[in-house]
Specification:
The protein is of the alpha/beta class. The protein folds into three domains: 61 residues, Nucleic acid-binding proteins (OB fold (Dihydrolipoamide Acetyltransferase, E2P)), CATH 2.40.50.140; 196 residues, Rossmann fold (3-Layer(aba) Sandwich), CATH 3.40.50.150; 142 residues, OB fold (Dihydrolipoamide Acetyltransferase, E2P) (Beta Barrel), CATH 2.40.50. 23% of the residues lie in helices and 31% in strands. A seven-stranded mixed sheet has the order 9-8-7-10-11-12-13. A seven-stranded mixed sheet has the order 18-17-16-19-20-22-21, sandwiched between helices. A six-stranded mixed sheet has the order 1-5-6-4-3-2, with no helix packed on it. A hairpin with a 2-residue loop joins strand 3 and strand 4. Helix 1 runs parallel beside helix 9. The longest helix has 18 residues. The radius of gyration is 23 Å and the shape is globular. The termini are far apart.
Length: 451
């Protein structure tokens, strides 16, 4: 096998990045835009010591799991990897990814994993989309996702996984930017004003928040244009500028200015009213997040006498609905902005049995003193929990640990650390499809203290 070779290949699996997996003379080859059961001709593009990479050249025999993508740029846009794959099979593969991670990384040979909790809507589910801005070959303003493996924008006027109520704004805001003559940021020269267009919507309320990520905090005519937008789009409740002047791939800067309207939108999540800022972390799939929370509550069978600690609590998305089911709840969050929103959301909902603390989880858990929580709820970032967090959990030994993760590999690593000392054992594993049409999978695990 040499770079540039054209080779016939059968796809036998999908990897965690969403690529098809085949083998040539015992060597693994990864090919995007394929699915298990495809027989293809692939052009070998890269050869590494342990694997090769290919490009789909010709589909010889299509898999029974292959469908026609709903998006006309699905083969170019980097936003989705799996629009060509049957939705039911997507969920099967995601469950299998969780099983494989728990077996290979966690060492759980016979662990029971529930069928993947499905999203109510395989399309139009995203409540937030942030698009890089660019200039096309004709000089027109573009907004879209990057072409796979590049920083070239695939221009979009609508996106099938985005809430469809955002489509008019995506299409028309570009035209207004063009008319205003605002310059577009060039990441090669670090010059220009506008970097990203961010649209966020409350699925339950329909309220929309528009944010321009810019290097210029005094964007000319922005206040006048913002008022025009508010008048034109009845659901638009606020227009913001997020200031990011650093030459990096980080989308949002630390400062956000309200140009017109409100700095937040209102959403209803699991019966709780939440105020959400433009740069706040909030689960991208509102309805599936609710379903997962409902499943967790069913499994926990709370009696209303428990003390619960929600580590990495954010704005209280899970903390507040859980607080209504227990005697006492505590939220831990290291980001001041998120913590302030959590406290505000508790007041809005008149939930007074919850206390929020600004701290790193690894620090706070070691300072809990005589407080012995019954349940500790973990929803860490993709990198998983700090080693100190895991060690402290083994010292505190709550009756149950709920771990919600967006990366099966770090989930498996962390619960292995908690279970290999024979203190805990898995009680329940529930994958959830928060991101249909992509290879990403969310998963919740409940660990029960032995004895």
């Amino acid at each position: 096998m040499q770079q540039g070779d054209l080779i016939e290949l059968e796809i036998t699996d999908l990897n965690t990045s969403g690529e098809g997996v085949g083998r040539i003379n015992g060597k693994v080859v990864f090919v995007p835009d394929t699915v298990t059961g495809d027989r293809i001709n692939t052009r070998i593009t890269h050869i590494k010591s342990r694997y090769g990479e290919g490009r789909l050249q010709q589909l010889l025999i299509p898999s029974k799991y292959r469908i026609r993508p709903r998006c006309i740029v699905a083969d170019k846009c980097g936003g989705c990897q799996w629009q060509h794959i049957d939705w039911e099979y997507q969920r099967q593969i995601k469950r299998q990814q969780v099983i494989q991670a728990l077996q290979r990384i966690g060492g759980f040979e016979n662990i029971q994993v529930a069928p993947t909790l499905h999203s109510p809507h395989p399309l139009n589910y995203r409540n937030k989309s942030t698009y890089p801005l660019g200039i096309g070959s004709t000089g027109n303003i573009q907004a879209g996702y990057y072409r796979r493996g590049s920083h070239k924008i695939v221009n979009l006027n609508q996106c099938p996984v985005q809430d469809s109520r955002l489509h008019p704004l995506l299409r028309e805001i570009k035209q207004d930017i063009q008319q205003q003559g605002w310059s577009i940021y060039d990441e090669k020269t670090n010059k220009g004003q506008l970097r990203h267009l961010s649209l966020r919507i409350g699925i339950r309320t329909g309220e929309i928040l528009l944010t321009l990520v810019t290097t210029d905090p005094e964007l000319p005519q922005i206040k006048q244009q913002a008022q025009i937008w508010l008048a034109k789009y009845p659901s638009l409740v606020g227009v913001c500028l997020n200031i990011n002047q650093k030459p990096s791939n980080v989308i949002f800067g630390k400062e956000t200015l309200v140009v017109a309207g409100k700095p937040f939108l209102t959403e209803i999540f699991a019966g709780v009213t939440l105020q959400i800022l433009s740069d706040t972390f909030f689960q991208i799939n509102t309805e599936t997040a609710e379903l997962l929370l409902d499943s967790i509550l069913q499994e926990l069978q709370l009696q209303g006498t428990e003390t619960l600690v929600d580590a990495y609590c954010g704005i209280g998305t899970f903390t507040l609905p859980l607080a209504r089911k227990v005697k006492q709840a505590i939220g831990i969050e290291s980001y001041y902005s998120s913590l302030a929103q959590a406290k505000n959301n508790a007041q809005i909902n008149k939930i007074d049995n919850v206390t929020f603390y600004e701290a790193k989880v690894e620090d706070y858990l070691q300072l809990m003193g005589d407080l012995k929580p019954d349940i500790i709820f973990l929803d860490p970032p993709r990198k998983g929990c700090n080693v100190r967090v895991l060690k402290t959990l083994l010292q505190l030994q709550p009756n149950k640990i709920v771990y919600v993760s967006c990366k099966p590999a770090t989930l498996a690593r962390d619960i292995k650390s908690l279970c290999e000392t024979e203190v805990y054992q898995p009680q329940w594993v529930q994958p959830a499809d928060f991101f249909p049409q992509t290879s990403h999978v969310e998963c919740a695990v409940i660990l029960r203290k032995k004895g």
